[in-house]
Fold:
Amino acid sequence: MSYALITGGAIGLGRAFSDLLADRGYDLILTSRSLDHLASAQKEIQAKYRVKVQIFVGDLAKSDFRDKLIEFIKPYDIDILINNAGFGHNDLFIDAPLDKEFQMIDLNIKALQHLMKHFYGYFKDKSGGRIINVSSLAGFVPGAYASTYYATKAYVTSLTRAAAYEAKVTKSNVVIQALCPGPLKTQFFETAGTSIKFYKKDPKMAARQALDAKRVIIVPGFKEKIAHGLLKIMPTSLSVRFAGFGQKRKKNQ
Structure:
């Protein structure tokens, strides 16, 4: 049976992907820093869907762990990579701790790029595979009060667009996509320093739309699609104000 690798796959949006892919018959490999979360997900998914779930514990922000993960997965026939692990932080740029920003860049960008690069080559060699990078609506606008997070997601979206084009024109049979949701009802707010009340959308809705999508850029949700359309035509000087206003409202006082 084919496997799907899901980073951050034990909770939140990653868990939504895990459940949906298990329901579609995929065996799973899940990564997380939390053994407790992974063990719970493994037990629940295997009991409900009768698939195999392998778990691997560690911090994807560290390159040596990513190397160990790549070595661990060699025996498995993987068809899908869900590059989901990431976190945000809400603060003025000047006040945000530099070490936290570097951790965010290491996870949101470096870890994603490392696994994407590896699996693009792996899928190209096996003449087929799919990579879904989890980005955000935040990737379409400069984000005052969460500037580094927004910048990491802009990187992910831009990288995905370019790599997807290259994959298509070179006929590699590798599908590369970016999921760009708005706020979802997950644990994201806990590390972002934002209020839970702004996170209401069902992560399974976003994951399902991503898995069913053909487009490179996937924006789940009607309001989110409208926002995406407006951001395409809105001057950056105006959109950055709106983004900043929204982030200030989300701040967990």
In short: The first strand starts at residue 3 and ends at 7.
